[in-house]
Amino acid sequence: DVTRFSERAYLLHGYVERDANAILEQLREVIKQSPLRQFVTPGGGKMSVRTSSCGDFGWITDRKGYRYTDTDTITGEPWPAMPAELKELAETAAKECGFESFSPNACLINVYHPGAAMGLHQDKDESDFSQPIVSFSLGLPATFLWGGLKRGGSPHKITLQHGDVLVWGGPDRLRYHGVKKLADGQHPLTGNVRVNLTFRVR
Ligand code: MD3
Ligand code: FE
């Protein structure tokens, strides 16, 4: 079932639940080639979330800023290919929400251990904000926060469970959003972590 919380923002409950094993298997292969790492932000802080990417482009940050690259700055190699099955799942989820021509070329992999969080931010390193963002949540549940188009105010809270998919497009594409500090727990498929994939058009 689908919950719509704003003009073009949707939660597809359990949408990838039955594909979770296959998705995680493919992610393990990706992470063998481009390992998870903790980025340093332009402000100098180390991110608590561990990150990698697959697709034609990967999102990175360092002291110089946030950006997409076509090679992994750790390995010096191109980012691993986006597994076709993952790309298709993301495209089908987008279609369910009326985004017919979504073709992501970047997939950011975020791994949260207990205590990891993501502060409120906008995703604005992409060039075409008319393209939606699709995200898959796997493993431990997390509290997702979403606010307005400007900083300030108290954000809405949504619990994201294993297998949930979020689609954000149209006027909701530039909303502030983040993730609360992950609580301890154990999940049969991921152990003590939450995995989030975000599919984007760079
Ligand atoms: C709402 N990741 O990687 S995914 C990120 O759970 C990021 O790891 C979070 O925010 C995570 O940038 C949230 C859901 C999501 C992604 C992009 C959005 C929600 C969004 C862009 C605009 C509005
Ligand atoms: Fe984001």
Entry summary:
With 202 residues, this protein is α+β, with helices and mostly antiparallel strands. The chain contains 2 helices and 13 strands; from the N terminus they run E-E-H-E-E-E-H-E-E-E-E-E-E-E-E. The strands form 3 sheets. A 7-stranded antiparallel beta sheet has the order 1-2-11-8-13-6-3, with helices on one face. Strands 7-12-9-10 form a 4-stranded antiparallel beta sheet, with no helix packed on it. A two-stranded antiparallel ribbon has the order 4-5.
Strand order of the largest sheet: 1-2-11-8-13-6-3
The CATH architecture name reads Sandwich
Flag low-confidence runs: none
Count of discrete structural domains: 1
Bound molecules: N-(carboxycarbonyl)-S-(naphthalen-2-ylmethyl)-L-cysteine, fe (iii) ion
Pfam family, one: 2OG-FeII_Oxy_2
Domain Fe2OG dioxygenase: 103-202
GO molecular function: dioxygenase activity
Cofactor: Fe(2+)
Describe the structure.
With 202 residues, the protein is an alpha+beta fold. It has a single domain (2-200), classed as Jelly Rolls (Sandwich). The chain is built from two helices and 13 strands; from the N terminus they run ββαβββαββββββββ. It has helices spanning 20-33, 84-96; strands spanning 2-6, 9-12, 50-55, 58-62, 65-69, 106-112, 118-121, 133-139, 142-146, 156-160, 165-168, 177-179, 194-200. The strands form three sheets. A seven-stranded antiparallel β-sheet has the order 1-2-11-8-13-6-3, covered by helices on one side. It has a four-stranded antiparallel β-sheet with strand order 7-12-9-10, with no helix packed on it. The mean pLDDT is 98. The structure holds N-(carboxycarbonyl)-S-(naphthalen-2-ylmethyl)-L-cysteine and fe (iii) ion. N-(carboxycarbonyl)-S-(naphthalen-2-ylmethyl)-L-cysteine binds at residues 108, 110, 118, 123, 133, 135, 146, 166, 168, 172-173, 175, 177, 179, 196, 198.
